[in-house]
Amino acid sequence: MKIIIDQDKCVASGQCVTAAVDVFDQRDEDGIVVLLNDNPPDDLAADVHQAAAVCPALAIVVED
Amino acid sequence: MSVLIVGASAAGLSTLEALRRKGYQDKVTVLGAEWHPPYDRPPLSKQYLAGTWDEQKTRLRPDAVLSSLDAEFVLGDEAVGLDVVRRTVHTASGRDLQADSIVIATGLKARTLQELEGVHVLRTLDDAAALRKDLLEASRLVVVGDGVLGAEIAATARKMGLTVTMAGPQSTPLESQLGRTIGGLLTELHKQEGVQLRLGTAVTGLTENDGRVSDVELDNGDVLPADVVVVALGAAPVTDWLAGSGLTLDNGVVCDSRCQAGQGIYAVGDVARWHHEGLDSLLRLENRTNATEQAACVAANIVGDVQAYTPVPYFWTDQFDTKIQVHGLPSADAEVTVIEGSVEERRFVALYRRADRVVGVLGWNMPKQTRLRRQQHLVAAA
């Protein structure tokens, strides 16, 4: 699994962090997404897909 | 089994994606009134209008991803009627589309004042393209409306170098949603950035010159000269095509707590007014995150994973360099308390309380901290 984030598209909603806290975080200063792990273990796959699905800016792409 | 989704914007596309994620493998058809492949609306008043994003970047998904969803997209054809018993949608071009489940995702139509050259609304990509084209040749813009969309357009146009006036009946921008404390800060923000505010006064009409708008008239007798006018006075749910169908239509498609409007018929997104069990009342939300979250619930109900839809509402708005995040349901009459950061530094989190209950959490340039406070005050508390 490979995760690609687009910080330019990110609107700082933090929905991805709520969905997968071990994989995503937000910058303290402006809330923009930070990727903690761009190739997380398979047991997090469902959470990561959920994060990509709920992102209101479609700023997360997951390649299986 | 088959599903027909009427509407090819965020809510409709999200329903399709959620169905596929849940393993639904049968036929799905998506009917869209516009010719454009599904695109996102929040950037239209900001990055797209400003010209920093092109049309391609507003697309919800690239073509390859759309193809992989294995759905039939019928675009450029509008739904004009619904036969509830036969679960068939009639379209403007004469198609009859039948399915076992129908999802209504027809969204909103912008209200306008009158059809005149130079007068715009902003709802669709075509609207945004036409407005941008006009703004590039204009010097004076009047925004009629003091809500989220009006304030965002005013900010974008100001950054494009236009002389901008925002006019509306409220005493501050977004007053009815966020109250006067936060509204007052928005007033200051817009003034600092050079937007002229004519608030607390209703717009009574437009003046034309040779078929093109020339002025905006206010109820106090003032006249605002304008090259371009944007009408941002809200939008109405697109339900006219459902008249006579037997579905309950009242400020949207009225649904039960599972977003079901009738046997095998669901509504999702801006058009859906459903029973929120947590609030024990009907609620209709016009925001981007609701489109996705409600779509997930509708898809679950279609595949038999029956569930009620009880979200914590959320919207954001970006105006100039200020990012505002709003969780829950704040209101103008709620008590506002800053709990983190400082108003002076224009970086804070505030709680909205009614009857000693936290009903909303608002962040001003503090998105991460606002999300954490949301968890603490709106999710954990519930």
UniProtKB/TrEMBL annotation, chain A:
Its cofactor is [3Fe-4S] cluster. Keywords: 3Fe-4S, Electron transport, Iron, Iron-sulfur, Metal-binding, Transport. It comes from the Bacteria. The keyword Iron-sulfur applies. One of its GO terms (molecular function) is electron transfer activity. Coiled coil: none annotated. Transmembrane segments: none annotated. The keyword NAD does not apply. It holds the Pfam family Fer4_13. Ferredoxins are iron-sulfur proteins that transfer electrons in a wide variety of metabolic reactions. This is Ferredoxin. It comes from Kribbella antiqua. The lineage of its organism: Bacteria, Bacillati, Actinomycetota, Actinomycetes, Propionibacteriales.
TrEMBL record, chain B:
Keywords: FAD, Flavoprotein, Oxidoreductase. Residues 314-375 form the Reductase C-terminal domain. GO terms for cellular component: cytoplasm. InterPro entries: FAD-oxidoreductase/Apoptosis, FAD/NAD-bd_sf, FAD/NAD-binding_dom, FAD/NAD-linked_Rdtase_dimer_sf, Reductase_C. The keyword Phosphoprotein does not apply. Residues 1-295 form the FAD/NAD(P)-binding domain. The keyword Lipid metabolism does not apply. Pfam families: Pyr_redox_2 (PF07992), Reductase_C (PF14759). Gene3D superfamilies: 3.30.390.30, FAD/NAD(P)-binding domain. One of its GO terms (molecular function) is oxidoreductase activity, acting on NAD(P)H. Its cofactor is FAD. This is NAD/ferredoxin-dependent reductase-like protein. It comes from Kribbella antiqua.
